[in-house]
Amino acid sequence: MTTSTRGATKVPAVLVLEDGRMFRGRAYGAVGVTFGEAVFSTGMTGYQETLTDPSYHRQVVVMTAPHVGNTGVNDEDPESQRIWVAGYVVRDPARVPSNWRSRRTLDEELAQQGVVGISGVDTRALTRHLRERGAMRVGIFSGNALPDEGTMLAEVRQAPEMKGADLSAEVATKEPYVVPAIGEKKFTVAAVDLGIKGMTPHRMAERGIEVHVLPATATADEVYAVNPDGVFFSNGPGDPATADHPVSVMRAVLERGTPLFGICFGNQILGRALGFGTYKLKYGHRGINQPVQDRTTGKVEVTAHNHGFAVDAPLDKVSETPYGRAEVSHVCLNDNVVEGLQLLDRPAFSVQYHPEAAAGPHDAAYLFDRFVSLMEGQRA
Fold this sequence. Notes:
Radius of gyration: 21 Å
Largest sheet: 11 strands, mixed
Structural class: alpha/beta
């Protein structure tokens, strides 16, 4: 990626998809060149949380909402220490942000962090194209001296694909840290950081949990060195088929019967640990308005998603695994994709979406309470 942070509002830009389709617009954020996987997010708000979600590492995010940047950027809502998206695509950026917490414009924040974007694009047409053809490699080129179309397309086709990408260690913490319990400490949880969002350990801390956040490379011995009452596996980027180390650590946790909770990438890790396969979705689920049914209660939740891979597990039966019986606990009502797993003979479960609700609805907050209940039951 090459970038410049000079003013970009009138600088020409081109978005080039690997199948040859191109969209012309204006530079937004930094000026330069970037590559990634083109994906679309259907949320109408929460763009700051999206940008700073480590799960979007190496992805160019297309916002389906036409107006982006209306509330500017504040210092309270980031989910990590930086913007992780590889590029950003919007239709009509806000000219003037309006929010009492705003400190700067989204355009300024993107430029400051070197994130190449493009505006003035027909994001509806682009999203329909990605729905029909699937997520694919993309490049954004901006500046007053753009390469010819053939050169741009060739560079896009040389960029690495998301399938087979092992990325969690690139976004995870390098050193362990602790998020203290809020109020009385009730439990200790070891959280394996595969790309964790800041709100996730906070949601656990609200419930009296002291969270020890560990690097993605943490071993089972390092997990148990904190004497955990439960173990958590976070969200994260990349292809779960490459995540052999987290799978081996999770299997060690399952062997010991410690209460276990995984979200997003953690759900795919549990699927692999149980012996299920994973596969790449055509265009994935991203946004804060995805309908999911909790099959254990029949309740339908509006949920926040960011995933391009899914677990291949049977929806119509209980499966036998090396760790006892397992079943699909949650399913997406749009396309029947597996959205959760639970073991029936051990205290372990996972969901494919983001119950920390940053940004997004609070329908799934009960899952943290379910984790607490598992730890209470184990202690009893």
